[in-house]
Design brief:
By secondary structure, the protein is an alpha+beta fold. The protein is 26% helix and 35% strand. It is built from 12 helices and 33 strands. The strands form 7 sheets. The protein has a 9-stranded mixed sheet, with helices on both faces. A hairpin with a 2-residue loop joins strand 13 (258-263) and strand 14 (266-271). Helix 1 packs across helix 5 (130-142) and helix 9 (326-337) packs across helix 10. It starts with a strand and ends with a strand.
Protein backbone atom coordinates (compact mmCIF):
# COMPACT_ATOMS: atom_id res chain seq x y z
CA UNK A 1 0.00 0.00 0.00
CA UNK A 2 1.23 3.49 -0.86
CA UNK A 3 -0.21 6.80 0.29
CA UNK A 4 -0.86 10.01 -1.67
CA UNK A 5 -1.03 13.33 0.17
CA UNK A 6 -2.49 16.28 -1.74
CA UNK A 7 -2.67 19.77 -0.31
CA UNK A 8 -0.73 22.46 1.49
CA UNK A 9 0.61 22.83 5.06
CA UNK A 10 -1.70 20.86 7.38
CA UNK A 11 -1.63 19.95 11.08
CA UNK A 12 -2.33 16.25 10.35
CA UNK A 13 0.69 15.80 8.10
CA UNK A 14 3.52 15.49 10.70
CA UNK A 15 1.68 12.60 12.38
CA UNK A 16 1.03 10.84 9.10
CA UNK A 17 4.65 11.20 7.99
CA UNK A 18 5.90 9.83 11.32
CA UNK A 19 3.51 6.86 11.17
CA UNK A 20 4.33 5.84 7.59
CA UNK A 21 8.08 6.44 8.02
CA UNK A 22 8.13 4.03 10.94
CA UNK A 23 6.11 1.44 9.01
CA UNK A 24 8.24 1.89 5.87
CA UNK A 25 5.25 2.72 3.67
CA UNK A 26 5.70 5.05 0.72
CA UNK A 27 4.12 8.53 0.92
CA UNK A 28 3.97 10.62 -2.27
CA UNK A 29 3.37 14.36 -1.89
CA UNK A 30 1.07 15.66 -4.65
CA UNK A 31 1.00 19.44 -5.35
CA UNK A 32 -2.52 20.94 -5.62
CA UNK A 33 -2.05 21.77 -9.31
CA UNK A 34 -0.74 18.31 -10.31
CA UNK A 35 -2.93 16.39 -12.80
CA UNK A 36 -0.65 13.70 -14.29
CA UNK A 37 -1.11 10.38 -12.45
CA UNK A 38 0.55 8.04 -14.94
CA UNK A 39 2.97 7.00 -12.21
CA UNK A 40 0.14 5.18 -10.41
CA UNK A 41 0.38 2.44 -13.06
CA UNK A 42 3.29 1.13 -10.97
CA UNK A 43 1.12 0.53 -7.90
CA UNK A 44 -1.72 -1.94 -7.39
CA UNK A 45 -3.13 -0.20 -4.30
CA UNK A 46 -3.04 3.32 -2.94
CA UNK A 47 -4.80 5.43 -0.35
CA UNK A 48 -5.68 9.12 -0.66
CA UNK A 49 -5.06 11.67 2.11
CA UNK A 50 -5.63 15.42 2.17
CA UNK A 51 -7.78 17.38 -0.27
CA UNK A 52 -9.06 15.45 -3.34
CA UNK A 53 -11.81 17.05 -5.47
CA UNK A 54 -13.88 14.54 -7.44
CA UNK A 55 -12.43 15.58 -10.83
CA UNK A 56 -8.89 14.98 -9.52
CA UNK A 57 -9.88 11.64 -7.95
CA UNK A 58 -11.01 10.42 -11.38
CA UNK A 59 -7.56 11.12 -12.80
CA UNK A 60 -5.99 8.70 -10.31
CA UNK A 61 -7.76 5.72 -11.93
CA UNK A 62 -4.88 4.12 -13.82
CA UNK A 63 -4.57 0.54 -15.06
CA UNK A 64 -1.63 -1.20 -13.28
CA UNK A 65 1.26 -2.49 -15.40
CA UNK A 66 3.84 -5.19 -14.83
CA UNK A 67 7.09 -4.07 -13.19
CA UNK A 68 10.60 -5.27 -13.98
CA UNK A 69 12.89 -6.40 -11.16
CA UNK A 70 14.82 -3.13 -11.29
CA UNK A 71 11.65 -1.08 -10.76
CA UNK A 72 10.49 -3.37 -7.94
CA UNK A 73 13.81 -2.83 -6.16
CA UNK A 74 13.54 0.98 -6.34
CA UNK A 75 9.93 0.99 -5.13
CA UNK A 76 10.73 -1.40 -2.27
CA UNK A 77 13.34 1.06 -0.93
CA UNK A 78 11.24 4.21 -1.39
CA UNK A 79 9.58 5.93 1.59
CA UNK A 80 8.95 9.44 0.22
CA UNK A 81 8.08 10.88 -3.18
CA UNK A 82 7.93 14.47 -4.41
CA UNK A 83 7.42 16.12 -7.77
CA UNK A 84 9.83 18.56 -9.34
CA UNK A 85 9.83 20.59 -12.51
CA UNK A 86 13.29 21.46 -13.14
CA UNK A 87 16.88 21.08 -11.98
CA UNK A 88 17.81 18.22 -14.31
CA UNK A 89 15.21 18.75 -17.05
CA UNK A 90 12.19 20.88 -17.80
CA UNK A 91 9.77 17.96 -17.52
CA UNK A 92 7.60 17.48 -14.44
CA UNK A 93 8.58 14.19 -12.79
CA UNK A 94 8.34 12.12 -9.62
CA UNK A 95 11.45 11.71 -7.46
CA UNK A 96 11.57 8.86 -4.93
CA UNK A 97 13.69 8.75 -1.77
CA UNK A 98 14.87 5.92 0.45
CA UNK A 99 15.37 6.36 4.19
CA UNK A 100 19.13 6.45 3.55
CA UNK A 101 18.74 9.34 1.07
CA UNK A 102 16.78 11.48 3.54
CA UNK A 103 18.85 10.76 6.64
CA UNK A 104 22.17 11.17 4.80
CA UNK A 105 21.20 14.60 3.48
CA UNK A 106 19.72 15.72 6.81
CA UNK A 107 22.71 14.54 8.86
CA UNK A 108 25.22 16.23 6.53
CA UNK A 109 23.36 19.56 6.88
CA UNK A 110 22.67 19.26 10.62
CA UNK A 111 26.33 18.60 11.46
CA UNK A 112 27.01 22.25 10.57
CA UNK A 113 24.68 23.50 13.34
CA UNK A 114 24.39 23.48 17.10
CA UNK A 115 21.50 21.00 16.90
CA UNK A 116 20.65 21.47 20.60
CA UNK A 117 19.38 24.91 19.58
CA UNK A 118 17.09 23.57 16.86
CA UNK A 119 13.99 22.87 18.92
CA UNK A 120 11.60 24.63 16.53
CA UNK A 121 11.58 24.48 12.72
CA UNK A 122 9.54 27.22 11.06
CA UNK A 123 8.82 26.22 7.46
CA UNK A 124 7.76 28.69 4.78
CA UNK A 125 8.20 26.10 1.95
CA UNK A 126 5.24 23.76 1.45
CA UNK A 127 5.50 20.01 2.20
CA UNK A 128 5.09 19.28 -1.53
CA UNK A 129 8.50 20.96 -2.03
CA UNK A 130 11.59 18.96 -0.99
CA UNK A 131 12.91 21.94 0.97
CA UNK A 132 9.83 22.03 3.20
CA UNK A 133 9.33 18.26 3.33
CA UNK A 134 12.85 17.10 4.25
CA UNK A 135 14.37 20.10 6.06
CA UNK A 136 11.03 21.06 7.56
CA UNK A 137 8.68 18.19 8.33
CA UNK A 138 11.13 15.26 8.32
CA UNK A 139 13.80 17.11 10.30
CA UNK A 140 11.20 17.86 12.97
CA UNK A 141 9.73 14.33 12.94
CA UNK A 142 13.08 12.53 13.10
CA UNK A 143 14.67 14.83 15.72
CA UNK A 144 11.73 15.53 18.05
CA UNK A 145 11.57 19.20 17.11
CA UNK A 146 8.40 21.27 16.77
CA UNK A 147 7.38 22.01 13.18
CA UNK A 148 5.62 25.38 12.78
CA UNK A 149 3.79 26.57 9.67
CA UNK A 150 0.78 28.58 8.61
CA UNK A 151 -1.89 26.19 7.36
CA UNK A 152 -2.89 26.57 3.75
CA UNK A 153 -1.17 28.61 1.06
CA UNK A 154 1.53 31.22 1.66
CA UNK A 155 0.08 34.53 2.89
CA UNK A 156 0.74 37.55 5.12
CA UNK A 157 -0.57 35.50 8.05
CA UNK A 158 2.59 33.39 7.76
CA UNK A 159 4.73 36.42 8.65
CA UNK A 160 2.56 37.28 11.64
CA UNK A 161 2.83 33.68 12.89
CA UNK A 162 6.62 33.85 12.53
CA UNK A 163 6.73 36.99 14.67
CA UNK A 164 4.65 35.27 17.35
CA UNK A 165 6.51 31.93 17.40
CA UNK A 166 10.18 32.65 16.70
CA UNK A 167 12.64 32.38 19.61
CA UNK A 168 16.28 31.63 20.40
CA UNK A 169 15.96 27.96 19.46
CA UNK A 170 14.28 28.42 16.07
CA UNK A 171 15.50 27.46 12.60
CA UNK A 172 13.58 29.30 9.85
CA UNK A 173 13.38 27.83 6.34
CA UNK A 174 12.60 29.98 3.31
CA UNK A 175 13.52 31.03 -0.20
CA UNK A 176 14.91 34.54 -0.83
CA UNK A 177 11.38 35.58 -1.80
CA UNK A 178 9.99 34.52 1.59
CA UNK A 179 12.68 36.44 3.47
CA UNK A 180 12.38 39.56 1.29
CA UNK A 181 8.64 39.59 2.00
CA UNK A 182 9.23 38.98 5.71
CA UNK A 183 11.70 41.89 5.92
CA UNK A 184 9.14 44.21 4.32
CA UNK A 185 6.44 42.95 6.70
CA UNK A 186 8.63 43.57 9.76
CA UNK A 187 9.51 47.07 8.53
CA UNK A 188 5.85 47.97 8.03
CA UNK A 189 4.95 46.60 11.46
CA UNK A 190 7.83 48.64 12.94
CA UNK A 191 8.74 45.86 15.37
CA UNK A 192 11.94 44.16 16.45
CA UNK A 193 11.53 40.36 16.16
CA UNK A 194 12.63 38.05 18.94
CA UNK A 195 16.21 36.92 18.47
CA UNK A 196 16.36 33.50 16.79
CA UNK A 197 19.19 31.06 16.23
CA UNK A 198 19.47 30.45 12.50
CA UNK A 199 17.85 30.14 9.10
CA UNK A 200 18.43 28.45 5.74
CA UNK A 201 18.04 30.51 2.56
CA UNK A 202 17.43 28.09 -0.29
CA UNK A 203 15.72 27.78 -3.63
CA UNK A 204 17.33 30.67 -5.55
CA UNK A 205 20.38 32.94 -5.56
CA UNK A 206 20.89 34.66 -2.20
CA UNK A 207 22.58 38.06 -2.05
CA UNK A 208 24.99 39.53 0.48
CA UNK A 209 22.53 42.32 1.20
CA UNK A 210 19.71 39.88 2.01
CA UNK A 211 21.96 37.90 4.39
CA UNK A 212 22.93 41.11 6.22
CA UNK A 213 19.31 42.30 6.50
CA UNK A 214 18.27 38.95 7.95
CA UNK A 215 20.70 39.58 10.79
CA UNK A 216 20.04 43.28 11.28
CA UNK A 217 16.28 43.47 10.62
CA UNK A 218 14.98 39.94 11.31
CA UNK A 219 17.33 39.51 14.29
CA UNK A 220 18.52 36.06 13.13
CA UNK A 221 21.87 35.38 14.81
CA UNK A 222 23.44 33.04 12.27
CA UNK A 223 21.77 32.85 8.83
CA UNK A 224 23.00 30.17 6.44
CA UNK A 225 22.64 29.47 2.71
CA UNK A 226 21.80 26.08 1.23
CA UNK A 227 22.18 24.85 -2.33
CA UNK A 228 20.89 21.63 -3.77
CA UNK A 229 18.14 19.96 -5.74
CA UNK A 230 15.15 17.69 -5.35
CA UNK A 231 17.30 14.83 -6.66
CA UNK A 232 19.83 15.47 -3.84
CA UNK A 233 17.27 15.05 -1.04
CA UNK A 234 18.00 18.12 -1.16
CA UNK A 235 21.55 19.14 -0.12
CA UNK A 236 24.68 19.53 -2.28
CA UNK A 237 26.59 22.48 -0.76
CA UNK A 238 26.02 24.74 2.26
CA UNK A 239 27.37 28.01 3.61
CA UNK A 240 27.42 27.28 7.35
CA UNK A 241 25.47 29.39 9.87
CA UNK A 242 27.03 32.72 10.78
CA UNK A 243 29.50 32.82 7.87
CA UNK A 244 28.64 35.81 5.65
CA UNK A 245 28.64 35.31 1.88
CA UNK A 246 31.64 36.83 0.10
CA UNK A 247 29.59 37.64 -2.99
CA UNK A 248 26.07 37.26 -4.33
CA UNK A 249 25.43 33.58 -5.03
CA UNK A 250 27.96 32.28 -2.46
CA UNK A 251 26.80 28.72 -1.61
CA UNK A 252 29.70 27.57 0.53
CA UNK A 253 31.19 24.11 0.66
CA UNK A 254 30.23 20.62 -0.49
CA UNK A 255 28.40 18.64 2.19
CA UNK A 256 30.04 15.57 3.70
CA UNK A 257 29.32 12.41 1.73
CA UNK A 258 28.70 14.33 -1.51
CA UNK A 259 31.02 14.40 -4.53
CA UNK A 260 30.78 17.29 -7.03
CA UNK A 261 32.32 17.75 -10.47
CA UNK A 262 31.88 21.09 -12.26
CA UNK A 263 31.55 20.81 -16.05
CA UNK A 264 30.59 23.21 -18.84
CA UNK A 265 27.08 21.74 -19.12
CA UNK A 266 26.48 21.94 -15.36
CA UNK A 267 27.58 20.05 -12.26
CA UNK A 268 27.53 16.32 -11.60
CA UNK A 269 26.97 15.12 -8.06
CA UNK A 270 26.86 11.70 -6.45
CA UNK A 271 26.54 10.30 -2.96
CA UNK A 272 24.16 8.33 -0.78
CA UNK A 273 21.84 11.35 -0.68
CA UNK A 274 21.22 10.92 -4.45
CA UNK A 275 17.56 9.91 -4.89
CA UNK A 276 16.50 6.26 -5.18
CA UNK A 277 14.70 6.74 -8.50
CA UNK A 278 13.07 9.16 -10.95
CA UNK A 279 9.81 8.47 -12.81
CA UNK A 280 9.82 10.48 -16.03
CA UNK A 281 8.15 9.96 -19.43
CA UNK A 282 6.59 6.68 -18.28
CA UNK A 283 9.87 5.18 -17.05
CA UNK A 284 11.30 4.62 -13.56
CA UNK A 285 15.07 5.11 -13.63
CA UNK A 286 18.02 5.44 -11.29
CA UNK A 287 21.31 7.25 -11.88
CA UNK A 288 24.44 6.94 -9.75
CA UNK A 289 25.60 10.34 -11.02
CA UNK A 290 23.11 13.20 -11.56
CA UNK A 291 23.61 16.30 -13.68
CA UNK A 292 22.29 19.60 -12.32
CA UNK A 293 22.11 22.19 -15.10
CA UNK A 294 23.53 25.02 -13.01
CA UNK A 295 26.63 27.14 -13.54
CA UNK A 296 28.92 27.12 -10.48
CA UNK A 297 32.24 28.88 -9.93
CA UNK A 298 34.75 27.29 -7.57
CA UNK A 299 37.82 28.61 -5.80
CA UNK A 300 40.21 27.19 -3.23
CA UNK A 301 40.11 28.55 0.30
CA UNK A 302 42.26 27.16 3.10
CA UNK A 303 42.50 23.74 1.51
CA UNK A 304 38.73 23.60 0.86
CA UNK A 305 36.72 24.43 -2.24
CA UNK A 306 34.11 27.16 -1.98
CA UNK A 307 31.39 27.54 -4.62
CA UNK A 308 29.37 30.40 -6.10
CA UNK A 309 26.11 29.93 -8.00
CA UNK A 310 26.06 31.93 -11.27
CA UNK A 311 22.77 30.77 -12.80
CA UNK A 312 21.23 28.08 -14.97
CA UNK A 313 22.87 26.46 -18.00
CA UNK A 314 19.58 25.56 -19.69
CA UNK A 315 16.22 27.15 -20.44
CA UNK A 316 14.81 26.75 -16.93
CA UNK A 317 14.27 29.81 -14.74
CA UNK A 318 13.99 29.83 -10.98
CA UNK A 319 10.92 31.84 -9.94
CA UNK A 320 11.37 32.18 -6.16
CA UNK A 321 12.28 28.49 -5.85
CA UNK A 322 9.81 27.17 -8.45
CA UNK A 323 11.63 25.87 -11.56
CA UNK A 324 9.86 26.73 -14.82
CA UNK A 325 10.85 25.39 -18.23
CA UNK A 326 10.66 28.13 -20.86
CA UNK A 327 10.37 25.63 -23.71
CA UNK A 328 7.66 23.54 -22.05
CA UNK A 329 5.45 26.55 -21.25
CA UNK A 330 5.83 28.23 -24.64
CA UNK A 331 5.01 24.87 -26.25
CA UNK A 332 1.82 24.55 -24.19
CA UNK A 333 0.70 28.07 -25.10
CA UNK A 334 1.51 27.63 -28.80
CA UNK A 335 -0.39 24.32 -29.01
CA UNK A 336 -3.41 25.47 -27.02
CA UNK A 337 -3.95 28.82 -28.75
CA UNK A 338 -2.56 27.95 -32.22
CA UNK A 339 -0.05 30.78 -32.09
CA UNK A 340 3.68 31.39 -31.95
CA UNK A 341 5.09 32.02 -28.47
CA UNK A 342 8.47 32.70 -26.88
CA UNK A 343 9.08 32.70 -23.10
CA UNK A 344 11.81 34.84 -21.54
CA UNK A 345 13.41 35.29 -18.13
CA UNK A 346 12.98 38.68 -16.44
CA UNK A 347 14.50 40.14 -13.29
CA UNK A 348 12.15 40.49 -10.32
CA UNK A 349 13.07 42.02 -6.95
CA UNK A 350 10.90 39.59 -4.94
CA UNK A 351 11.29 36.40 -6.94
CA UNK A 352 14.78 36.73 -8.37
CA UNK A 353 13.46 35.75 -11.80
CA UNK A 354 10.02 35.98 -13.34
CA UNK A 355 8.63 34.75 -16.63
CA UNK A 356 7.46 36.80 -19.59
CA UNK A 357 5.79 35.80 -22.86
CA UNK A 358 5.68 37.23 -26.38
CA UNK A 359 2.64 36.09 -28.36
CA UNK A 360 2.56 36.34 -32.16
CA UNK A 361 -1.14 36.24 -33.04
CA UNK A 362 -3.79 38.65 -34.25
CA UNK A 363 -6.46 39.02 -31.56
CA UNK A 364 -9.20 41.59 -31.16
CA UNK A 365 -9.35 41.58 -27.34
CA UNK A 366 -5.75 41.43 -26.11
CA UNK A 367 -6.53 41.78 -22.40
CA UNK A 368 -8.94 38.83 -22.46
CA UNK A 369 -6.41 36.76 -24.39
CA UNK A 370 -3.68 37.65 -21.85
CA UNK A 371 -5.95 36.46 -19.04
CA UNK A 372 -6.54 33.17 -20.88
CA UNK A 373 -2.78 32.66 -21.30
CA UNK A 374 -2.26 33.38 -17.59
CA UNK A 375 -5.01 30.88 -16.70
CA UNK A 376 -3.34 28.16 -18.80
CA UNK A 377 0.04 28.76 -17.13
CA UNK A 378 -1.59 28.70 -13.67
CA UNK A 379 -3.30 25.41 -14.46
CA UNK A 380 -0.01 23.94 -15.71
CA UNK A 381 2.46 25.01 -13.03
CA UNK A 382 0.46 26.60 -10.21
CA UNK A 383 1.50 30.25 -10.69
CA UNK A 384 -0.26 33.04 -12.55
CA UNK A 385 2.09 35.31 -14.53
CA UNK A 386 1.62 39.06 -14.41
CA UNK A 387 -0.43 40.27 -17.37
CA UNK A 388 2.09 43.10 -17.85
CA UNK A 389 4.69 40.41 -18.66
CA UNK A 390 2.62 39.15 -21.63
CA UNK A 391 2.95 41.17 -24.83
CA UNK A 392 1.97 40.84 -28.50
CA UNK A 393 4.70 41.18 -31.12
CA UNK A 394 6.54 39.40 -33.90
CA UNK A 395 8.80 36.70 -32.47
CA UNK A 396 12.47 37.83 -32.64
CA UNK A 397 14.70 35.35 -34.48
CA UNK A 398 18.49 35.11 -34.73
CA UNK A 399 20.60 34.48 -37.83
CA UNK A 400 19.84 30.75 -37.61
CA UNK A 401 16.08 31.46 -37.49
CA UNK A 402 15.88 30.29 -33.88
CA UNK A 403 14.26 32.21 -31.03
CA UNK A 404 16.39 35.20 -29.97
CA UNK A 405 15.63 35.37 -26.24
CA UNK A 406 17.90 38.36 -25.66
CA UNK A 407 15.90 40.43 -28.14
CA UNK A 408 12.77 38.94 -26.57
CA UNK A 409 13.72 40.33 -23.16
CA UNK A 410 14.21 43.77 -24.73
CA UNK A 411 10.78 43.63 -26.36
CA UNK A 412 9.06 42.82 -23.06
CA UNK A 413 11.02 45.48 -21.16
CA UNK A 414 10.23 48.02 -23.88
CA UNK A 415 6.53 47.71 -23.01
CA UNK A 416 7.07 48.79 -19.41
CA UNK A 417 6.44 52.30 -18.13
CA UNK A 418 9.86 53.23 -16.78
CA UNK A 419 10.35 56.08 -14.35
CA UNK A 420 13.50 58.15 -13.96
CA UNK A 421 15.88 55.19 -13.87
CA UNK A 422 16.33 51.58 -14.94
CA UNK A 423 18.02 49.14 -12.55
CA UNK A 424 20.88 47.28 -14.19
CA UNK A 425 19.37 44.12 -12.73
CA UNK A 426 16.72 44.28 -15.48
CA UNK A 427 19.48 44.45 -18.08
CA UNK A 428 21.98 41.94 -16.67
CA UNK A 429 20.81 39.29 -19.16
CA UNK A 430 21.60 41.68 -22.03
CA UNK A 431 25.15 42.74 -21.13
CA UNK A 432 26.55 39.68 -19.38
CA UNK A 433 28.80 40.02 -16.34
CA UNK A 434 29.46 37.46 -13.65
CA UNK A 435 27.19 38.25 -10.70
CA UNK A 436 29.55 40.14 -8.38
CA UNK A 437 31.22 42.06 -11.23
CA UNK A 438 28.25 44.38 -11.84
CA UNK A 439 29.19 47.45 -9.79
CA UNK A 440 26.60 50.06 -10.77
CA UNK A 441 23.00 50.03 -9.60
CA UNK A 442 20.97 52.16 -12.01
CA UNK A 443 21.06 54.08 -15.29
CA UNK A 444 19.32 57.39 -14.56
CA UNK A 445 19.49 59.47 -17.76
CA UNK A 446 18.92 58.33 -21.31
CA UNK A 447 20.22 60.24 -24.34
CA UNK A 448 21.80 59.17 -27.59
CA UNK A 449 25.53 58.86 -27.00
CA UNK A 450 25.20 59.74 -23.32
CA UNK A 451 24.42 57.94 -20.10
CA UNK A 452 24.39 58.63 -16.39
CA UNK A 453 24.75 55.86 -13.84
CA UNK A 454 24.69 55.72 -10.08
CA UNK A 455 25.87 53.38 -7.38
CA UNK A 456 25.18 53.40 -3.65
CA UNK A 457 28.38 52.33 -1.92
CA UNK A 458 28.14 49.02 -0.04
CA UNK A 459 30.67 47.96 2.57
CA UNK A 460 31.23 44.61 0.81
CA UNK A 461 31.56 46.20 -2.65
CA UNK A 462 34.45 44.96 -4.75
CA UNK A 463 35.34 48.57 -5.61
CA UNK A 464 36.83 48.97 -2.10
CA UNK A 465 40.34 47.94 -1.07
CA UNK A 466 41.22 48.41 2.59
CA UNK A 467 38.12 50.58 2.91
CA UNK A 468 39.15 52.91 0.06
CA UNK A 469 37.93 53.25 -3.52
CA UNK A 470 40.54 52.22 -6.10
CA UNK A 471 41.32 54.31 -9.18
CA UNK A 472 40.61 51.24 -11.33
CA UNK A 473 37.11 51.10 -9.81
CA UNK A 474 36.31 54.51 -11.34
CA UNK A 475 37.40 53.23 -14.75
CA UNK A 476 35.14 50.19 -14.41
CA UNK A 477 32.20 52.34 -13.28
CA UNK A 478 32.56 54.51 -16.39
CA UNK A 479 32.76 51.51 -18.74
CA UNK A 480 29.75 49.81 -17.16
CA UNK A 481 27.69 53.00 -17.13
CA UNK A 482 28.23 53.55 -20.84
CA UNK A 483 27.61 49.87 -21.66
CA UNK A 484 24.34 49.73 -19.73
CA UNK A 485 23.29 53.14 -21.08
CA UNK A 486 23.56 51.73 -24.60
CA UNK A 487 21.35 48.81 -23.58
CA UNK A 488 18.86 51.16 -21.87
CA UNK A 489 18.68 53.33 -24.98
CA UNK A 490 18.12 50.25 -27.13
CA UNK A 491 15.29 49.10 -24.84
CA UNK A 492 13.65 52.52 -24.91
CA UNK A 493 14.12 52.93 -28.67
CA UNK A 494 16.44 55.92 -28.31
CA UNK A 495 19.27 54.22 -30.17
CA UNK A 496 17.48 51.39 -32.02
CA UNK A 497 20.08 50.93 -34.75
CA UNK A 498 22.79 49.88 -32.31
CA UNK A 499 22.46 46.62 -30.37
CA UNK A 500 25.55 45.96 -28.31
CA UNK A 501 25.83 42.77 -26.27
CA UNK A 502 29.37 43.06 -24.95
CA UNK A 503 31.50 46.03 -23.87
CA UNK A 504 35.28 45.77 -23.45
CA UNK A 505 37.83 48.41 -22.47
CA UNK A 506 40.29 48.81 -25.36
CA UNK A 507 42.33 51.75 -24.07
CA UNK A 508 42.52 54.12 -21.09
CA UNK A 509 43.90 57.61 -21.71
CA UNK A 510 44.06 61.04 -20.09
CA UNK A 511 43.02 59.67 -16.71
CA UNK A 512 42.94 62.12 -13.79
CA UNK A 513 42.06 61.16 -10.22
CA UNK A 514 41.54 63.30 -7.14
CA UNK A 515 40.81 61.28 -3.99
CA UNK A 516 42.49 63.72 -1.57
CA UNK A 517 40.42 64.50 1.55
CA UNK A 518 37.42 62.52 0.26
CA UNK A 519 35.86 60.26 2.87
CA UNK A 520 34.04 57.46 1.05
CA UNK A 521 31.65 55.53 3.25
CA UNK A 522 28.85 52.97 2.75
CA UNK A 523 25.64 54.73 1.77
CA UNK A 524 27.34 57.44 -0.30
CA UNK A 525 25.77 58.00 -3.74
CA UNK A 526 28.26 57.93 -6.61
CA UNK A 527 27.24 59.57 -9.91
CA UNK A 528 28.90 58.54 -13.17
CA UNK A 529 28.51 60.69 -16.32
CA UNK A 530 29.52 59.34 -19.75
CA UNK A 531 29.54 60.89 -23.24
CA UNK A 532 30.49 59.26 -26.55
CA UNK A 533 32.62 61.85 -28.42
CA UNK A 534 33.57 59.71 -31.43
CA UNK A 535 31.66 56.76 -32.89
CA UNK A 536 33.52 54.34 -35.18
CA UNK A 537 30.91 51.58 -35.34
CA UNK A 538 31.72 49.09 -32.60
CA UNK A 539 34.64 51.25 -31.40
CA UNK A 540 33.59 54.20 -29.22
CA UNK A 541 35.61 57.01 -27.69
CA UNK A 542 34.00 57.86 -24.36
CA UNK A 543 34.71 60.56 -21.79
CA UNK A 544 33.62 59.75 -18.25
CA UNK A 545 33.43 61.57 -14.94
CA UNK A 546 32.86 60.16 -11.44
CA UNK A 547 31.41 62.28 -8.62
CA UNK A 548 30.78 61.76 -4.91
CA UNK A 549 28.13 64.39 -4.25
CA UNK A 550 29.59 67.38 -6.15
CA UNK A 551 33.20 66.34 -5.66
CA UNK A 552 34.87 65.23 -8.92
CA UNK A 553 36.78 62.02 -8.15
CA UNK A 554 37.90 60.98 -11.61
CA UNK A 555 37.92 62.08 -15.23
CA UNK A 556 38.88 59.36 -17.70
CA UNK A 557 38.96 58.88 -21.48
CA UNK A 558 38.22 55.38 -22.73
CA UNK A 559 38.16 53.54 -26.00
CA UNK A 560 35.45 50.91 -25.73
CA UNK A 561 34.62 48.01 -28.00
CA UNK A 562 30.84 47.59 -27.99
CA UNK A 563 29.82 44.69 -30.19
CA UNK A 564 27.76 41.56 -30.70
Amino acid sequence: MIHLWRGTHHHELPGLLKKFWESGELVIMVPPYHRDFQFLQMFAEFQLHGEWPEDIKKLTQQAPRALCEFEKKIIASAVLGVFTSGTTSGVNRLVLYSKENVTTSLNAIRELYDTQRIQKVFSYPQPTHTFGLVLGYMQAVLNNAQIIFSEGAYSRQTHQLWLEQVDGNTLTLGTPTHFVDLIQFVKKQNVIPNKSYTSIIGGAMATCDLWQQMRSILNIEQPSIGYGATEASPGVTHLPPGIPPKEDGDIGYVLSGVSVKVQEEGIYFEGSNACAGIFENGELKHAEQILLKDSLKSHSEGGKTRYTFNGRTDLVLNRGGLKLSLEVLEGKIAAHFFCRCIAVSLFDERLGEDIGFIIQKDVSDKETFKAQVADLVAESVGIRPALSNIIFSDIPLNANFKFDRVEGIKKVLRERAWGESISVQHMKYLLPHKGGAVWIDDVTEFKKGQGVGQVTLQSQGRYFSDGKIRESSCIEWIAQTYGYSVIANDILGIEPAYKGRVTFIAEVKNAKFDFVDVDHKPGDMIRIETTCTHDFGPLKVVNGKVFNDKKLLAQVGLKLYCGQ
